[in-house]
Amino acid sequence: MAVPFTQIPAALLVPGMFQEVDPSLAGSPGEIKRALVIAYKSGAGTAPAGKPVRVLSDGRAAALLGAGSPAAILARAFLSINRVEECWALPVDAPAAATPWQAEFSVEADSAQQGAVAITVCGARIDAAAVAPGAGAAEIAAAIVARINGEMWLPIEAEVSIGGNGAFSVRATVPGSWGDAIGVSIESEAVGVSVSAGASSRGTQTANIGPLLKNLGNVRYNYVVSDFAGQNNIAALAAELTDRFTALRQIGGRAFIAITGDKEAALAAAATVNNPHICLVPRMDNPQLPGEWAARWCAAACRILADDPAANTNGLAVPGLSSGLSYDIESRQALLTAGIATYRTDAMGNVRVERLVTTYTENADGGRDTSFLDIQVPETVDAVRTHINAEAARRFGRWKLASTEENFGSGAKVMTAGIFRSFLCELYQDVFITQRRWCQNFDNYRDTLAVEIMPGSKTRLEYIHQPDLIGQFYIGAGLLQFT
């Protein structure tokens, strides 16, 4: 037997007992799963725009991305659900010509009684601003402004209008059209005090994230949350994820993006995507920010999928999301057919994933194609490929390659088509079926597996294999015939 020593030379003459330590057969291949948030930072954030940065805590998110910025809010939402996967952020600067969403309010006071002014932002009520007996309009307006600005995680900031007549304004923390999703309600609960909403102006301009995606390099981000739901930005992200999934990069990932509006708006948004790595989540007209909606879906789903890419996510709770709105079965069928995820709500209004699908619905010829319908399919394909590559690199590093199947002796580090075929069959049976339960039908896999050394080459082994992925038990259809 030829023992493949690497440290003990064959010509050693010095007496002694020597043993090399070879860890190549120990442990198992794995990877650190990363989630990436793509959203606007504010001017207060210290992280440079366009460069990924690790976010370890809420405080770190506020410092790096700017408290109240979309990026900080999304990172905080993700971390509130999932602290197992690494959370990263790609900070984006608002366009120089962007203007913020803004709304005007005015306070009127006449013999004000002790009480409070209720403030609700994006569906969440914050601690009210106190009203003192006899307080004037300007004093109450200042108290409301101070209360809003005292909350570091709000996507708005407030300012008393010039003149001190009880008028004040609120605006998005970062300029841009993203702020148009912000909802602010301010209502007096004190006798003798009223708060009226005035004019509002929409935010303008949206950043182009396409060039920034090139800064991600070859670091793998398994899951992505994007706050940019415009057609051009979704297309740019889809192109990047498609490229990352290719054979020469093999660093695939799935992205979550929330879409706003009714069923028709959702269907129209999905019609322009058709990508197996983009998941659209229907926010409808929920008051929570679209980006936060997507971040919470991603955090809940990827915690399950990171451990088991083939896991069924039906019924998975999405902490922090509630909705009084839901689609009927016909609408959910239409959404799923179009490549849009669906959810149901429980008795308390909490959101639970129903079916998490990708936007891939058509092949290159325009025909209906469900090969990548459920997110578990690209997730499992990625996992199978990654595991095979990592295990092969671990076992067969520095091996030679032979085109014949002759006996090279026990312990010889010589790869042949037969050895690699046995390796693939072993992984499929022992790991992908028995341990991980990602695949099924070993007999078909073995019978259709083909491995050969490329004719005329002494360095390239080629193979074709057909893993039969395990499915999801979503539908039970029965026919009850009674007599």
Describe the secondary structure blueprint for this structure.
Blueprint: E1 34-40, E2 53-54, H1 58-65, H2 70-81, E3 86-92, E4 102-109, E5 115-121, E6 124-131, H3 137-149, E7 156-160, E8 167-172, E9 184-188, E10 193-201, H4 210-213, E11 223-226, H5 231-245, E12 254-260, H6 263-270, E13 278-284, H7 290-307, E14 317-322, H8 329-338, E15 342-345, E16 350-355, H9 376-396, E17 400-401, E18 414-415, H10 417-435, E19 439-440, H11 442-448, E20 450-453, E21 461-464, E22 468-469
Parallel strand pairs: 1-3, 1-11, 11-12, 12-13, 17-18
Antiparallel strand pairs: 2-3, 4-8, 4-10, 5-6, 5-9, 7-8, 14-16, 15-16, 19-22, 20-21
Question: Can you walk through the features of this model?
Answer:
There is one protein chain. This protein has 3 domains: 34-93 and 207-377, no CATH class; 102-201, Alpha-Beta Plaits (2-Layer Sandwich); 398-483, no CATH class. The longest helix is centred in the C-terminal third of the chain and has 21 residues, at 376-396. The strands form 7 sheets. It has a 6-stranded mixed sheet. It has a 4-stranded antiparallel sheet with strand order 7-8-4-10, with helices on one face. It has a 3-stranded antiparallel sheet with strand order 6-5-9, with helices on one face. The chain is an alpha/beta fold and 483 residues long. It has helices spanning 58-65, 70-81, 137-149, 210-213, 231-245, 263-270, 290-307, 329-338, 376-396, 417-435, 442-448, and strands at 34-40, 53-54, 86-92, 102-109, 115-121, 124-131, 156-160, 167-172, 184-188, 193-201, 223-226, 254-260, 278-284, 317-322, 342-345, 350-355, 400-401, 414-415, 439-440, 450-453, 461-464, 468-469. It starts with 33 loop residues before the first strand and ends in a 14-residue tail after the last strand. Helix 5 links the parallel strand 11 (223-226) and strand 12. The chain contains 11 helices and 22 strands.
